[in-house]
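This is your field. Have a critical look at the following sequence-structure pair:

***
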Amino acid sequence: MVVLSQPILDNLAYIKTCRPTSTVFTGVPEIDLSDANAKSLIVNACTEFGFFKVTNHGVPMEFLARLEAEALEFFKLTPQEKEMSGPPSPFGYGSKNIGPNGDVGWVEYLLFCANYDTPIPGISDTLRGMVTEYVGAVKDMACAVVEMVAEEMGMGERDILSRMLLDEKSDSCFRLNHYPPCPQLQALSGRSLIGFGEHTDPQIVSVLRSNNASGLQICLRDGSWVSVPSDHTTFFFIVGDSLQVMTNGKFRSVKHRVLANGFSERVSMIYFGGPPVSEKIRTLLTMGEGEESLYKEFTWGEYKKSAYKTRLADNRLEHFEKSAYVAN
């Protein structure tokens, strides 16, 4: 057995751990975007899991490999060099600290605005250009998916969701996460180290792509955590809190997390599709007789402000549920 030095143990002490799970989720809905039944398959996946992956997405694998390599070139820089690109305010480089309220994880990241060129010092022109190209391609993919959702759910206008993402004032962002290998995991007596803590995404939809390193987990309806098999050839879609409200709770904003890996580095890229700050977040479905909205109406700016006051694992939506609103 390898005995670790106290400084290494102290380095892990402030990052949360969790019980490991050996359950691999083999039921991730896989949807071919060219399938004639894609609309209904997407809605079913959003209703049951709030999570699915897509194939036939049209983004070249060669481009994805180049972007991943370019991101790794940045993360290989010395800590002092990387810190020149931070701290994130809100965009830029961050390490271990996630948000302003004390959440930490075994992760470092770059956060960009998805709507315009983000002035982050220390970022190569090559990486900046590739991020812009990537965000454009994934935004188009996200718009195609939410248009299918709007049509299948009878929201009235096919572009009622996609135009929020395409709006020049859309509050969308893009994040590159790097989870370094953590060989010290053996010091944790069989527990798993948190890379990015459990949370839901507050936006409309998130589109995630990663390399083949494992780590992503989702929480099923019964409260159990399951590991999602990595697949670098597909994109994973995650329902956000806003879309849960817009579908009056019919879609599920899925809680997810990432665990550190002992030997492999994980690189993930996430596009968070958000509405403009002034956009009203409300149920977009036609209410039947006797049906009521589960949530009070609020703007994205109001929700974002509220969310930034919470910890990662908090249920941000509970303060906007009508039952909670009446009780207050």
